[in-house]
């Protein structure tokens, strides 16, 4: 049960508001939480449960995280593109070395009868065992690396050259 507030007597010194504040400060509002539980001071329970975050604090943290993501994301995407480019360049080097080994073992003869069609060359290199470890990789996946294409050429000295070019890079070079 709640206790009735004491009678407020007006004093000549001070205003009515001062008198009411001082009386309420002396007698805090007390109410039982539930039957069987003791009454608690409303002010002290608010201080104990004041550990949460305000909406402003949460929005500030979300805004800072969004700003950091905005600053970092271009670096992440360019790092992904650089990694893809390095994988494709390494695959081109793997194909070039396989052609060089084939030519060394076959007295300078080029695979697939000297064709520059990489599908034919890769088929020949696989059947003769020069692309070991790449048996489980489908031929389409081996030749289609990222957003680019491979090309096979033979130099004047007969040495093979396998290049990987990103799609659109030839158009950019033509504009220069």
UniProtKB/TrEMBL annotation:
Gene Ontology BP terms: establishment of competence for transformation
Coiled coil: none
Residue stretches spanning the membrane: 53-72
InterPro entries reported for this sequence: N_methyl_site, Pilin-like
Compartments it resides in: Cell surface
Alphabetized Pfam families for the sequence: N_methyl
Protein name: Competence protein ComGC
Source organism of this protein record: Brockia lithotrophica
